[in-house]
Write a structure and sequence with these properties.
mainly beta, Jelly Rolls, 7-stranded antiparallel β-sheet, 4-stranded antiparallel β-sheet, 2 helices, globular, binds succinic acid, binds manganese (II) ion
Length: 209
Amino acid sequence: MIAKGQTRAPDFVVGGAPVWKAFFDAAAQAEMVEALRRVVAAAPLFSPETRWGKPMSVGMTSAGRYGWYSDRSKGYRYIDRHPSGAPWPPIPDPVLAVWHAVAPDARAPDCCLVNVYRAGAKMGLHQDRDEADFSQPVISISLGDEGLFRIGGTLRGGPTQSVWLASGDVLALREEARLAFHGIDRIRHGSSALLKGGGRINLTLRVVD
Ligand code: SIN
Ligand code: MN
């Protein structure tokens, strides 16, 4: 469990985004995965379509007041219910504790997007720009297998830098990096024993309104 008020300086900055390596330990990671199992039981994973109608390789669901969604007809947006019509489950407390530890001055998040990467899954470079207030950070939490995270500037096609994100790592898209292009090139399948059968989970916490 992340202690209330736990704060720590970031270990390094990549593309303007601070990174905290191993921000929480194996026991806290396992606790978070348990809480996420309950989220997925209430709000099953689905594969959204890009706005060009291509299914994404990443399984997704959300917790909080809003969930992120995309399909060919309406594109990228937040919706207030799971596609089944069920309400999104609440954001688990251990996840909220990470937000409060690294973004103590921010408003409370109202969406936790859950991305599940199985072998071969990746995410193309994109900006997180479906939120109303870019003064609020996006906080990313990595669990399970390592993922090769790529980050560039705010214009598509500029130079990029890459870093492997491991289980327990936390990264913040904030200030000059809030609208940075970012994505996941590949997963080192089997590099972590946290998830049975391997795979990577990434959580991104956002303030939507
Ligand atoms: C995302 O940008 O939604 C996910 C990034 C990641 O998986 O680290
Ligand atoms: Mn993103």
